[in-house]
Specification:
Layout lengths: L1 E12 L12 E13 L10 H16 L2 E2 L9 H12 L2 H6 L9 H7 L7 H4 E11 L2 E6 H7 L2
Parallel strand pairs: 1-3
Antiparallel strand pairs: 1-2, 2-4, 4-5
Length: 152
């Protein structure tokens, strides 16, 4: 099952390898959708939305909100920022480890995080897709298919 959570953050940027309006400093209210895939656990959840929100907020939103993306990237296109977000979140099992004591973490995932069980925690829940909107009708998407195709 796919589970998604959406976020917004406000950032400024200018494109250093572009000629036109976007080479000048301007801002966006970015919309970010993070989608994970996993099995429904005994508590009825794939992942608690609160846990997913905490991970994304700490690793992405708090870093970029009301900041200049040029402080982080030489040429902060939506594609480059989306790929960065994917890389920050792709090790979801490791990020879940920090939340292993959360009472809403499914017991099955807690056991997998402790190395108990017959499968890896990544088999129970993994990052599936990251979509970043720069405007209401312009967005980029990163997913496993993108990285398997471009990294071979």
């Amino acid at each position: 099952m796919l589970v998604s959570k959406e976020f917004t953050f406000d950032s400024a940027h200018f494109l250093t390898k572009y000629h036109g309006k976007c080479e000048h400093l301007h801002g966006h209210t970015y919309r970010l959708r993070v989608t994970v895939e996993g099995e429904i656990q005994q508590n009825g959840l794939v992942i608690d939305f609160v846990i997913l929100k905490k991970i994304v907020r700490e690793r992405i939103i708090d870093k970029f909100d009301h900041r200049s993306l040029n402080d982080y990237f030489d040429n902060p296109t939506a594609e480059i920022v989306c790929e960065f977000i994917w890389n920050e979140l792709k090790n979801l099992p490791e990020l879940l480890q920090a939340e292993s004591e959360n009472p809403n973490m499914p017991e099955e995932i807690k056991r997998l995080l402790k190395g108990e069980g017959e499968k890896e925690v990544g088999a129970a829940v993994e990052l599936k897709e990251v979509t970043l909107w720069e405007t209401a009708d312009s967005f980029v998407t990163c997913n496993n298919a993108h990285f398997s195709r471009t990294r071979d």
